[in-house]
Design goal:
By secondary structure, this protein is α+β, with helices and mostly antiparallel strands. Strands 1, 2, 3, 4, 5, 6 and 7 form a 7-stranded mixed beta sheet that branches. The longest helix is centred in the middle third of the chain and has 29 residues, at 358-386. It is flat, with a radius of gyration of 29 Å.
């Protein structure tokens, strides 16, 4: 009995020693204060199942997959469509200015108020609706996109709604809703980009001659969207309080303050100059402040929120990253799909539409599958946010991978459209978004950094069922919590090893619980469950054997990010297929998405096995890699599946409009995209007429020749009717018109009065280096 009584004490001592060893040898990831705030922001969602290696598909299929209410759909179909009809996208890109009548329309119809409560004059929208509105507007104009996205995403309205004082809300929000205040958010600096927590913008707390506490701000910000037209800045600064006037110590930390352009004390504020972003033009520029003075009550949220700026930003971004940039990225995916699919059937070479050539068809199939999958992931993620879940890891996945896929599909669409896509002008349908793709890839955390640092670095700790609890126990020296969670972790790790082996041998048969779904998709569920189990095991191996060195292993963590990203995207495609009633015509799309996504996961696993390193890496690189190659999750979609997927984009009908209709589809009388869609519709309607002529040729009732060239003869011989001949002629004429590109006269090409926008003499509020004057003189 005495020996049994001492057993818990000995166990306590043993776990104490293990805990000390893990802490002293930095076995677990080391977490800074700013990283901790990021980790604790938001919620764990279905990503917890991926990192835990145990997926419950019945639970996932029960998750919300929402469509927005009727009044929001009415706004999308009404004011949004009207706005886009008012705006000539080519003219906006050339003049770089938003006409006053369009700005007034936007202000009068709530385009600046989607993030603001009704009591302040706002017109609050669901996350789903905001995402759809942003995607549709972005497909038409980058300038309009910036004017809609910035006021309704991370910035003054959102932060004031969550953290503002009553006085701040009552003053700012009604003016923001009406467009009287145009906001911008000043975070990025020359030395603080993706590492935003390292900002050097400085605010010094002092008392003025009247004894009022104020801040003296000195800062230099750049890449700030809407800055040139903004009159309300939400500025992130690092506060110093040498006399502890605020009672929060000498270094309160990062704080968000509000600065009104032209307010007393802002004489040292320099704002209004422009950067020139690549591709589509939109207002973006630097903000410089020299000894700008503001009152302490300009801290967003009041003085009590001093030093809490980073926490506020992380909480806002936890779900916010799911909205604007994914909307822009998916807009790019859909736009590439829309153009490539239509053009592939309108453009003929060698007597057939180029879309019937397998090389072109392959790219169209990918565009169709990825449009289906990524829009599914967008809807699924936004539904979670609307349901009160703020998933930072999946939001980061959506930001990085949707914008990357937008760039990828844009490149494929340029390959399909060739010279038609290259020649710019009012009728160019691809160049604008193609050239602008790097902007979405770069902002709100460059994709390289998001992929290699954030997704797995944050997810492995935050979303794992035990890792963060163990880290917290070590930091708090809580032996009981450490023992409980480390024991649970070990059990989970051992079960993961066993289930990875079993599911690998069975390929998910009998071992992955598949719910009552479309039978032809069950294989995708089985392999996803198998992949998730392996991912959970590999996550544990990384935590145990790489641990505190994970931050320095960006290539490795990037591959982990690829795996979890495609687990989510592929799962979302399955969720969409079930939520939309298992549409038979969409089966090829969900199958394409499944095979493509599983192949990306397979590639990620191969990269992890080959580069894990250390003794465990030797096993993975040899025995593990051989088994991985002999027993792959999937291969890329074969030619037959690519063909079936491509058909969804190669006929103008309901499925085509469902896939790409979230983007703006202009009237057929319009230039550019409008006339391309008209030609696509007519050539689709004329296809049965062509089939009659081809059948007559096969039966030797008509001679050889291109269908369009012998159409008149076919009508004379009664093969087709006069109405069918007219339809075919209309389609032919429309197709020929649609493939035309713009031609400029010499005066049009060079412009009146010299070359516009070729000089860049704004100083951005910063003194110029000596070589500037020489460059200016040479330019003149």
């Amino acid at each position: 009995m005495p020996r049994r009584a001492k057993q818990p004490q000995r166990n306590h001592s043993m776990f104490q020693q293990v805990m000390n060893w893990m802490r002293d040898n930095k076995i677990l990831p080391q977490i800074s204060d700013t990283e901790r705030q990021a980790l604790e922001a938001g919620d764990v969602w279905i990503d917890g199942q991926f990192f835990g290696g145990k997926v419950d598909f019945e639970n996932i299929l029960a998750e919300n997959y929402d469509q927005f209410p009727a009044h929001e759909q009415a706004f999308l179909d009404g004011p949004v469509e009207e706005l886009l009809k008012m705006a000539d996208s080519y003219e906006l890109s050339r003049t770089r200015k938003l006409p006053d009548d369009i700005f007034k329309f936007m202000a009068d119809n709530g385009f600046f108020a989607m993030q603001i409560a009704k009591e302040y004059g706002g017109m609050p929208m669901s996350t789903q609706a905001k995402s759809c509105i942003m995607a549709k507007v972005s497909s038409h104009s980058g300038l309009l996109s910036a004017m809609v996205v910035i006021p309704n995403s991370l910035g003054a309205a959102e932060l004031l709604g969550h953290y503002g004082t009553d006085e701040q809300k009552n003053y700012y929000l009604p003016k923001l809703a009406k467009g009287e205040f145009i906001p911008c958010f000043g975070l990025t600096e020359p030395t603080a980009g993706s590492d935003a927590a390292s900002i050097k913008a400085e605010g010094v707390v002092f008392k003025d001659d009247d004894g009022e506490v104020k801040f003296k701000l000195n800062f230099r910000k750049r890449y700030i969207t809407l800055a040139p037209v903004s009159n309300l800045i939400s500025l992130a600064v690092r506060l110093h309080d040498p006399e502890n006037l605020l009672g929060k110590g000498e270094e309160p930390g990062i704080t968000v303050v509000l600065i009104e352009k032209g307010a007393p004390g802002t004489e040292g504020l320099h704002i209004g100059d422009h950067h020139q972003p690549i591709g589509e033009h939109f207002p973006n520029g630097p903000i410089v402040g020299r000894d700008v003075i503001i009152a302490a009550d300009k801290v967003l949220g009041g003085v009590e929120y001093t030093g809490m700026g980073w926490k506020m930003l992380m909480e806002a971004l936890a779900g916010g990253r799911m909205v604007s940039l994914p909307a822009t990225g998916i807009c790019g995916v859909r736009h590439g799909a829309m153009i490539a699919g239509a053009y592939s059937m309108v453009r003929q070479q060698f007597g057939i539409p180029i879309g019937r050539m397998e090389g072109v068809e392959h790219k169209i199939g990918k565009a169709a599958g990825m449009s289906y999958a990524f829009d599914a992931a967008r809807v699924f993620g936004c539904s979670a946010v609307d349901n009160g879940i703020q998933p930072p890891v999946m939001s980061a996945v959506m930001k990085a991978y949707s914008t990357e896929m937008g760039r990828e599909i844009g490149t494929d669409a340029m390959d399909v459209t060739a010279g038609y896509g290259v020649m710019q002008g009012p009728n160019n349908t691809m160049g604008r978004l193609y050239n602008s793709a790097p902007v979405s890839v770069t902002v709100e955390g460059a994709n390289i950094m998001t992929r290699t640092l954030m997704i797995f670095g944050q997810g492995a700790t935050r979303c794992h069922p035990y890792a963060y609890k163990v880290v917290q126990a070590v930091e708090n020296e809580d032996v009981d919590s450490f023992r409980k969670n480390l024991t649970g972790w070990m059990v989970q790790f051992l079960l993961g090893m066993v289930m990875t082996l079993v599911r690998g041998v069975t390929r998910g048969w009998f071992t992955v619980k598949v719910p009552d779904v479309e039978p032809k998709t069950k294989s995708i569920y089985r392999r996803l469950g198998w992949a998730a189990t392996r991912f959970g095991l590999l996550t544990n191996l990384a935590m145990f054997f790489v641990g505190g060195k994970l931050k320095a292993r960006g290539n490795l963590t990037g591959r982990y990010a690829d795996a979890v990203a495609w687990l989510y995207i592929t799962t979302s495609a399955l969720r969409r297929f079930e939520a939309e009633g298992r549409k038979a015509e969409d089966l090829a799309l969900v199958q394409y998405a499944g095979e493509y996504g599983l192949t990306q996961i397979q590639k990620a696993f191969e990269g992890i096995y080959e580069n894990f390193g250390g003794p465990v890496g030797v096993i993975l690189k040899t025995v593990g890699r051989i088994w991985l190659g002999l027993n792959p999750l999937a291969k890329l979609p074969d030619d037959q599946l690519s063909h079936k997927a491509a058909l969804a984009l190669q006929s103008y009908g309901d499925q085509y409009k469902r896939l790409v209709g979230g983007n703006y589809m202009p009237e057929e009388s319009d230039q550019g995209l409008g006339r391309l869609l008209k030609a696509f519709r007519l050539t689709t309607e004329a296809e049965p007429v062509r089939a009659k002529i081809r059948a007559a040729q096969k039966a030797r009732k008509l001679g050889r020749g291109k269908v369009d060239e012998i159409a008149a003869e076919a009508a004379q011989q009664g093969v087709i009717s006069d109405a069918e001949l007219a339809l075919l002629n209309d389609a032919t004429a429309a197709c020929l018109l649609a493939i035309e590109v713009d031609v400029f006269t010499k005066d049009e090409y060079y412009g009146a009065g010299g070359i516009p926008a070729m000089s860049a003499t704004g100083d951005g509020g910063v003194e110029q280096p000596p070589e500037y004057e020489l460059a200016k003189a040479v330019g003149e």
